[in-house]
Amino acid sequence: MGADMNTHITQRSVQAATPPASGYIILFDDKIAGFGCRVTAAGAKSFILNYRVGGEKRRYTIGSWPKWTADAARDEAANVLLPAINKKGADPVRDKKALRDEPKMDALAKEYIEQHAEAKKREKSVYEDKRMLKKIILPKLGQRRVSSVTKREIELLHNSLRNTMKTHYPLAAALDNYRDQKLANALRLLIVTGARPGEVIGAEKAMFDLARGIRTKPSHHTKEKKTEHVPLNNAALLILRRMLESKDGGQVYLFPGRQLSDKKQENPRTTLRNAWRQVCKAAGLATMYYVKGKRGKLLKRWKPNVRVYDLRHTFASHLVSRNWSLQLVGKLLGHTQAATTERYAHVADAALRSVTNDFGEVLTLPEKVA
What we know:
There is one protein chain. By secondary structure, this protein is an alpha+beta fold. The chain has 4 domains: 3-100, Double Stranded RNA Binding Domain, CATH 3.30.160.390; 105-164, no CATH class; 171-257 and 266-275, Intergrase catalytic core (hpI Integrase, Chain A, Orthogonal Bundle); 310-360, no CATH class. Helices cover 47% and strands 16% of the residues. The strands form 3 sheets. A 5-stranded mixed β-sheet has the order 1-2-3-4-5. The protein has a 3-stranded antiparallel β-sheet with strand order 6-7-8, with no helix packed on it. The chain has a two-stranded antiparallel ribbon with strand order 9-10. A hairpin with a 4-residue loop joins strand 3 (35-40) and strand 4 (45-53). Helix 8 runs antiparallel to helix 9, helix 9 (181-193) packs parallel to helix 13 (310-321) and helix 13 runs antiparallel to helix 14 (326-333). The chain starts with a strand and ends in a 10-residue tail after the last helix. The relative contact order is 0.06. The model is unreliable at 163-168 and 355-366 (pLDDT under 50).
């Protein structure tokens, strides 16, 4: 235990303090009770505050000198710590220990996956949660204490996901980096239009009227055998303009297939399976597995965790969640039966519930009604 001495704590007195031969000494201030400077035999100096909570003695280290000046430490003790201790019952030592023991965001994320996600959610949802944590949340917040993360930071993170798709949405980046940008455009069109894969890869250029922003679906391409005119959104128009402005030798189809040497007739592409697999692999949306090769060697293969057709479901769910009617969404998707669009009714219910809850916040009801 070190010796205690009284003096007026100033920069000069702290600088002049002589280290003891062993242990430490504390120079207590002559005006602020409990405030002092601890000096160790090694010459380290730090500002401390002694106080009591519930009859028990506590010693809190404010900070080391010269990182903390004597005036700054004095102000912290007199105007921050002591008022909180004496008037509000604060315990800085306990609070400091609690903060030190508080988990970081990466530990909380691990606990969430193990105790909640894997126990209660589907495998696909667990995978997506892990991907979101690994790619987006933990790189920014993983080493932060949970209580230090503010609501404002969460809002900014949400806004960054909404506004910078290429940076935070791995599928967009994977499409940008895919070697065949024509096939990448086919997948982009599926994302922004909700069309069926066959409707995109089998489309003829003559079906698109970019001036009017309309796509014509001939009767032999629709289930009802009726010609349909579907409006195109701005994202789809941008993709199509870039494609149709390129020089491609007057091809009929938007996505022509391989031309056979013995056939003059042009055919459309028939599948996006390989392109989708490669894009999902690059985006972290595929699972690796092994197959045995001809010589018995194990070969790596990749299976997408989501189907190309899921892009259509995502398109519909997004529109319904933003309060567009099932009737309008069904018309965009080309559904011939209203019942087909009803699968998204639960999304509409959730969106409407959020809307009505906005008004519910206006009136606070008593716990008991007389």
